[in-house]
Amino acid sequence: MASDEEFLKFLAEQMDQAGAIRYRKMFGEYAIYCNEKVVALVCDNKLYVKPTEAGRKFIRNVEEAPPYSGAKPFFFIEDRFEDADWLSELVKITEQELPVPKPKKNKVK
């Protein structure tokens, strides 16, 4: 089951205090970006946040699950995404701990 774009819009609104939020369809599901860093995935209308040490301390009782078969475990956020302040803070501290993405190379034709 693919994720619903309305759910993505809702999540983006909930996270907007963290920074510049956008989402992009990837492999039939979605990646969520904060300040141009991938901070979360949405698969089957479920939110998975990239694991970081700061995020682990913030969440405390972490539930981890892979967003898709064969993936490494992410933080599975089942019910706290309705708390915009909490979710924005988690996304903000996750984004701050992640490295800056490498610039994309131009494709040779």
Question: Quick gist of this model?
Answer:
The chain has 109 residues and is α+β, with helices and mostly antiparallel strands. The protein is built from 3 helices and 6 strands, in the order αββββαββα. The protein has a single domain, classed as YgaC/TfoX-N like chaperone (Yope Regulator, Chain: A, 2-Layer Sandwich).
Task: Describe the overall structure.
29% of the residues lie in helices and 27% in strands. It has 109 residues and is α+β, with helices and mostly antiparallel strands. It has one domain (5-97): YgaC/TfoX-N like chaperone (Yope Regulator, Chain: A, 2-Layer Sandwich). It has a six-stranded antiparallel sheet. Helix 2 (53-59) runs antiparallel to helix 3 (84-97). The chain is globular and about 50 Å long. The relative contact order is 0.21. The mean pLDDT is 93.
Topology diagram in text:
Layout: H1 5-15, E1 21-26, E2 29-34, E3 37-43, E4 46-49, H2 53-59, E5 64-65, E6 74-77, H3 84-97
Antiparallel strand pairs: 1-2, 2-3, 3-4, 4-6, 5-6
What's the gyration radius in Å? 14 Å
By DSSP, the count of extended strands is 6
How far is it from the N-terminal to the C-terminal residue, by CA? 36 Å
- SS-based class: alpha+beta
Question: What is the level-2 CATH architecture name?
Answer: 2-Layer Sandwich
Q: Helix coverage percent of residues?
A: 25-40%
Helix segment tally: 3
Count of individual domains: 1
The top-level CATH class is Alpha Beta
The biggest beta sheet, please? 6 strands, antiparallel
Looking across the biggest beta sheet, what order are the strands in?
1-2-3-4-6-5
Low-confidence stretches: none
Average residue-wise pLDDT: 93
SSE run: HEEEEHEEH
